[in-house]
Design goal:
By secondary structure, this protein is α+β, with helices and mostly antiparallel strands. It has a domain of about 100 residues: Heat Shock Protein 90. About 30% of the residues lie in helices and about 30% in strands. This is ATP-binding protein.
Length: about 150
């Protein structure tokens, strides 16, 4: 039997930050942490579902494209929630669609974009951070910026 411990969460004024171990369980752990945090903020179930999809995609990408740990940061604002996943890879993600995507992947960022997430990629001293901003009113601008 496998036991999965929830990693410590660092609380800030409007958010949570947690370092996730490199594990096939990391996306599930990140989803549980996110669901609990959003519930305490009174976020609607539809927005929670969208946020969980974003978290799952971004954390899974770190497992596929990075060799180190990742950090999940959740931040709440008046009408938005920001989900940031930082990892140790310096390779920036590209949004692919159509023939550029294949059976091995490549559709995730386009899917997040299509569902209304505003995506921002930032280089960090240790790798990169990908931030998805979801409008809790359902009116998020689309796009990816760097």
């Amino acid at each position: 039997m496998t036991t999965i411990a929830t990693p410590p969460v660092h609380r800030t004024g409007t958010g949570h930050r947690v370092v996730l171990a490199r594990s096939r369980h990391a996306p599930a752990v990140a989803r549980r942490i996110t669901a609990r945090w959003l519930a305490t903020r009174g976020v609607s179930s539809g927005s929670v579902s969208d946020a969980l999809l974003v978290v799952s995609e971004l954390v899974t990408n770190t497992l596929r494209h990075s060799s180190g740990i990742c950090t999940l940061t959740l931040t709440a604002h008046a009408t938005t929630v920001c989900i940031t996943v930082a990892d140790t890879s310096t390779q920036l993600p590209r949004m692919r669609s159509g023939s550029a995507a294949n059976e091995d992947g490549g559709r995730g960022l386009a899917l997040l974009h299509d569902m209304g997430a505003r995506l921002t990629v930032t280089r960090t001293p240790w790798g990169k951070a990908v931030k998805a901003t979801l409008d809790l009113r359902g009116e998020a601008p689309h796009g990816i910026t760097e």
